[in-house]
User: What shape does this take?
Amino acid sequence: MLPVILAVAAAMSWGFSAVLVRMGLRHVGTRPGTLISLAAGLVFTAALVLVFEPGHLSEVTPQALLLFGIIGILNFPVGRFCNYMAMNRLGVGRSTPLLGSAPLFAVLIAVLFTGESLHVSTAVGVGLILGGLYVTVTAPR
Assistant: This one.
């Protein structure tokens, strides 16, 4: 049950942050907004690591450092900047469902690069995501 609660808490956090981003972008541009949010996130995350996992920093392997470094570049600065630009231009209601298409890319990359199998349930989920994206993109403003 705890993993479900954590996943819902993450979804609520992202939903809440999308609204705050839209409000914040009324007062500052996308680039400074991205920089401010990244700096705040870095400080908060560093504090969490130092409080809850201080001894584990020495266990980080070079491979893990490389992989998480790539994630840090793709997910945070690039992904957040593009997300903020989309929210600024489309609004939260239209950009957030598009951001929800991330599972499409995760499935594609997992199948192509990690050898995961595509099952019927996953294919149905992909179809539902595509349908939702179609509705979102073609809906009148």
